[in-house]
Amino acid sequence: MPTLARTDSLARKARFAGLLYLVVIVTGLGAELGLRGPLVDFSDADATATAILAAPSQFRAAIATDLVMALSDAGIAILLYLIFRTVAPGLALSAMVFRLIQTVLIATSLMALLAAWLVLTSADALTDAPALALVFLDLHAHGYDLGLVFFGVNSLIMGVLIWRSGLFAKAFGAGLALAGVVYLIGSGLRFFAPDFLPVFLPAYGLTILAETAFCLRLLLQRGTT
Description:
The chain has helices spanning about 10-35, 45-55, 55-85, 90-120, 130-165, 170-190, 195-200, 205-220. The protein is mainly α. It has one domain (about 10-220). α2 (about 45-55) packs across α5. The two termini are about 25 Å apart.
């Protein structure tokens, strides 16, 4: 079974991937929990519309932050492929493709946020604009979870690659594989059993823990001594 050598070039790639991973974690959580989340109430279209129109800069910042996250995630996909391609070329390529599909879907779903904004700012020409805007906001949430289906598969593959690589402790591979399972279950619930999703949401804490741990490990990667 091939393993990775700790070269200076590999260490630089790993640290850069870790830096981008940190950007993804901060911007992803920041956009959802810090910026967009406080404005959106899926049970109250009028309150959501009022909140967004009262804080346009915050809503736009959430879109910009998600865009930064998507760009950083694309960079991670490429760097992790370059790191792990000698371990298992087919698996490394598959992981990159699934992660890039996730990135494209999440970036595309930002159009739903822009549509919600356009609807709300054109309220004089539209009937029941808050309800229509809420539909677009819900579409964005579903698009995000559709992306996480592909990211869940990516995480499972990355778990195998890390397990095989010999470069990182196998616990990191197991953690990412577990995160992949959580993403797949969570997205499945969003689409097929949404009533059970609120009960499952705390499980996403495992994904934050696993990905943050791997991010820090990448940042601390050293080359030859």
